[in-house]
Amino acid sequence: MVREAEIHAEEDRCxxxxxxxxxxxxxxxHAARKTLEEVGTQLDAGEKAAxxxxxxxxxxVMSGDDKAEIEARSKELSDKSAGLAExxxxxxxxxxxxxxxxxxxxxxxxxxxxxxxxxxxxRHDAA
Length: 127
Hints:
With 127 residues, this protein is an all-alpha fold. It contains four helices and no strands. It starts with a helix and ends in a 29-residue tail after the last helix.
């Protein structure tokens, strides 16, 4: 049994790498689609088509067994969708600047440090 495991160790490693590449590709497709939904209206038709084509190309090879092709198509999608992330960041940053928010919303919470001086002194303050 141990001998069989040693014989198939290389196959198992290759299969693990393939599954990992597929999982990363699937996550990348999901993220690219979500970002497209959020900033799709700000893109020109050429940018949007390039990202959608890269998504379709990656999905076409994801079910295959060619790890190198999956990784190449993943890199292509990553490169094409990099601009999407920049636009999404600018959109969210611009919305905060337009409303005048520079930090967390004012919700009446005060962040402060304190020191409990009544420890073991026998004093108990009544509230």
